[in-house]
Amino acid sequence: MSSFCLLALLGEIFLGRFTNQGWTMPPTDVRERVLAAAVEILRTQGLAGLTQPRVAKAAGVSQSHLTYYFPTRADLTRAVLETAVEGQIANLGTAMSEATDPPERLSRLAQALTNAQNTRVLVSLVLAADSDPAFRDLYQRLVTAMRERATGMLAGAGLEPTPAQVALLHALGTGLAVMSAALGPEAGQAVNANVLQELFRLLAADAPAGAPPTA
């Protein structure tokens, strides 16, 4: 057996799990398990908690296995933030698509902005992008998705959204999410609902004459 084949076999053994049927758990499963554990740590502890030893322990793998897939903390952070951002986008789309009318959309948005775990992901992404410009594309991807949802909310309320209005709703939502993390979910949701209702009232009042009224 060649040295290459021997090394490959050893890799299969040490990265796998023995059963009566042989070695299972292909490398992609290990990688996905590590990512799932890391995303959970990011959502509950923030970027400061995302250390390689902590992730390895949570995923039930050795640190050498973790570094096989993610050699540096930057590699791990990048992969985790990519996974978390995709999850944030999917969750936001689901929440908004299930709402049937503008008031319900506002209520769902006010509630979504109180999710401290989502806010930790957002803050972690901001901190990562601030410390390393290589992460800014991920932040821009999330911004684009959030502004698409904001455009849909404004249009659904009978407005003709301008880029400035979309940016305003996005910026306000970001600020409310951060504030809610400090206030707690109950107080945060009440503030969010009042502020969002006032924003839409002001936007409707500023709409050109003849524009359809908001619901």
TrEMBL record:
All copies of domain HTH tetR-type, residue ranges: 28-88
Keywords: DNA-binding
DNA-binding region: 51-70
SUPFAM superfamilies in UniProt: Homeodomain-like, Tetracyclin repressor-like, C-terminal domain
Entry keyword DNA-binding: yes
PROSITE patterns per the UniProt record, alphabetical: HTH_TETR_2 (PS50977)
Annotated Gene3D superfamilies: Tetracycline Repressor, domain 2 (1.10.357.10)
Transmembrane segments: none
Source species, domain of life: Bacteria
Gene Ontology MF: a single term: DNA-binding transcription factor activity
UniProt xrefs under PANTHER family: HTH-TYPE TRANSCRIPTIONAL REGULATOR RUTR, TRANSCRIPTIONAL REGULATORY PROTEIN
Protein name (record): Putative transcriptional regulator
Gene: tetR
